[in-house]
């Protein structure tokens, strides 16, 4: 398996920290919950989903963390403008985020730590303290604490950035005079009036963490000092990920990340889809236009993650047509497989071209190209009555395998098996009687059958485990 590593700007052979155990730690920067995420953000999350699922198909055990940034300038401003406490303000967007994740069939990370949880705030304070004691950080006159980038020789390595260029950048907010160097970034922001009641105590006085230290703290707290893969969109490379390296390695003295993977942007008319440009769509915007979650999933997934993807309505239509082709093909294969006539012609041996394309820096375009070529060929064979039942069954099995990565089967095909439905009913009863122990036992049993149960405001929902 090979990936393009932003750190080296080269395609590298993938060698995890622990090749024998095949365990992989992945950290992915999650949403800042000051508004509903737009589909550009979801391009990044779908790329990460594809990465995780492919690694799993190849037999790796993935431990993935995705953080939730629930305190920063934007969330504080938003809560002030809305006149509600920060926690309440961000809760609505967290909920919306998880709804969208489910609609897009993005596999949930193992953990979704939120920056405001006290244990992570404690970890941030501990890390900042360690950086100060090593001369890598200092408290300035404005009482905020900054990272001293000159003391970290590798600063700029990820972005391939010359430190001296930083001198020429424009002024950075109000605090530049207090910093030793214009590129020094805030680890701890001293409380000011605009922060209202958003503050935590620290050895440097009341304040709140900077965005970058949040990720260093949550990543190292949950995954350890060293992780295999760290992802995000290209806009995260600098300064966010550069800062994460400086902070984490400044504290641990160990190489923080082995592979940095960044996805290119979703564009609209050649420009990045973003909140600030106002050229964005949210998932509900597209659902309202009649597109389904899987159509949007396909549209965001079908282009190689390092190539910019232009969002267009034609692109949405093409995605719809591609999925219709897959649906028709599956229906035909099922029909053929059901004939149970075996004329001994089964010479079908699906190879590994799909997986091999993904091994190659997650080349989804090539993998899908191979899928559609297969569809064309097997359809032709079915037209000519040359595909026997066993071969059709073999292709259906192949689809099942590659669909653990794609997760593009039509909703109509996803049927809850009766035994799972039965356990679900029992669990609903247990919950009605407030028998939480029984309810948890039933959840376990449902899980053992490969299904997941979630309690939503519309009641209990059953989904295939890892499919949503
Ligand atoms: P944010 O909530 O702005 O921190 O962004 C969350 C994630 O979405 C980050 O990994 C960003 O790099 C990514 N992102 C933001 N805008 C886009 C876009 N237009 N296309 C792809 N990814 C994006
Ligand atoms: Zn981050």
What does it look like?
By secondary structure, this protein is α/β, with parallel strands linked by helices. It has helices at residues 39-57, 73-82, 86-103, 118-133, 211-223, 237-252, 283-288, 293-301, 313-338, 353-359, 364-383, 389-406, 418-432, 436-448; strands at 2-5, 10-13, 23-28, 61-66, 137-139, 145-147, 186-190, 207-209, 227-233, 257-263, 266-268, 271-272, 309-310, 451-456, 459-464. It has a 4-stranded parallel beta sheet with strand order 4-3-9-10, with helices on both faces. Strands 5-6-7-8 form a 4-stranded antiparallel beta sheet. The chain has a 3-stranded mixed beta sheet with strand order 12-11-13, covered by helices on one side. Helix 2 crosses helix 3 (86-103) and helix 4 (118-133) packs across helix 6 (237-252). The radius of gyration is 25 Å and the shape is globular. The two termini are 25 Å apart. Residues 168-175 have low confidence and may be disordered. Bound molecules: adenosine monophosphate (AMP) and zinc ion. Zinc ion is lined by residues 29, 215, 240.
Keywords:
alpha/beta; 4-stranded parallel β-sheet; 14% strand; binds adenosine monophosphate; binds zinc ion
Number of strands: 15
What about the largest sheet?
4 strands, parallel
Give the distinct bound molecules.
Answer: adenosine monophosphate, zinc ion
**Strand fraction band?**
5-15%
Low-confidence stretches: 168-175
User: Which secondary-structure class do the elements indicate?
Assistant: alpha/beta
Helix content: 40-55%
């Amino acid at each position: 398996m090979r990936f393009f590593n932003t750190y080296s700007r080269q395609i590298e052979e993938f060698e995890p920290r622990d090749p024998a155990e095949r365990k992989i730690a992945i950290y992915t920067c999650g949403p800042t919950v000051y508004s509903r995420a737009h589909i550009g953000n979801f391009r990044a999350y779908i790329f990460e989903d594809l990465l995780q699922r492919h690694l799993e198909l190849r037999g790796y055990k993935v431990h993935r963390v995705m953080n939730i940034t629930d305190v920063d300038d934007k969330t504080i401003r938003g809560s002030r403008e809305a006149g509600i406490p920060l926690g309440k303000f961000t809760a609505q967007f967290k909920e919306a985020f998880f709804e969208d994740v489910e609609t897009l069939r993005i596999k949930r990370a193992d953990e979704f730590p939120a920056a405001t949880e006290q244990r992570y705030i404690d970890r941030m304070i501990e890390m900042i303290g360690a950086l100060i004691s090593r001369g890598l950080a200092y408290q300035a006159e404005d009482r905020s604490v900054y990272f001293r980038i000159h003391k970290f020789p590798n600063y700029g390595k990820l972005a391939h950035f010359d430190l001296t260029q930083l001198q020429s950048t424009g002024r950075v907010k109000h605090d530049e005079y207090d910093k030793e160097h214009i590129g020094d970034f805030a680890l701890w922001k001293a409380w000011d009036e605009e922060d209202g009641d958003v503050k935590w105590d620290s050895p440097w006085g009341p304040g709140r963490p900077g965005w970058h230290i949040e990720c260093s703290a949550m990543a190292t707290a949950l995954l350890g000092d060293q992780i295999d893969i760290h992802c995000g969109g290209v806009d995260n490379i600098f300064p966010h990920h550069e800062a994460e390296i400086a902070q984490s390695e400044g504290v641990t003295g160990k190489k923080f990340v082995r592979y940095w993977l960044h996805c290119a942007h979703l564009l609209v008319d050649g420009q990045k889809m973003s909140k600030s440009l106002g050229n964005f769509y949210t998932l509900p915007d597209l659902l309202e236009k009649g597109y389904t979650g899987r159509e949007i999933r396909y549209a965001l997934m079908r282009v190689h993650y390092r190539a910019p993807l232009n969002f267009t309505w034609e692109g949405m239509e093409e995605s719809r047509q591609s999925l219709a082709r897959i649906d028709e093909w599956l229906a035909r294969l099922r029909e053929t497989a059901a004939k149970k006539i075996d004329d001994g012609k089964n010479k079908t041996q699906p190879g590994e071209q799909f997986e091999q394309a993904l091994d190659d820096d997650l080349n989804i375009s090539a993998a899908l190209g191979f899928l559609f070529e297969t569809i064309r060929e097997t359809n032709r064979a079915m037209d000519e009555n040359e595909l026997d039942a066993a071969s059709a069954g073999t292709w259906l099995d192949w689809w099942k395998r590659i669909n653990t990565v794609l997760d593009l089967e039509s909703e109509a095909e996803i049927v809850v098996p009766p035994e799972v439905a039965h356990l679900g009913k029992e669990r609903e009863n247990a919950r009605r009687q407030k028998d939480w122990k029984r309810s948890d036992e039933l959840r376990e049993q449902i899980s053992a059958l490969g299904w997941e149960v979630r309690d939503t405001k519309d009641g209990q929902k059953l989904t295939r485990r890892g499919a949503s």
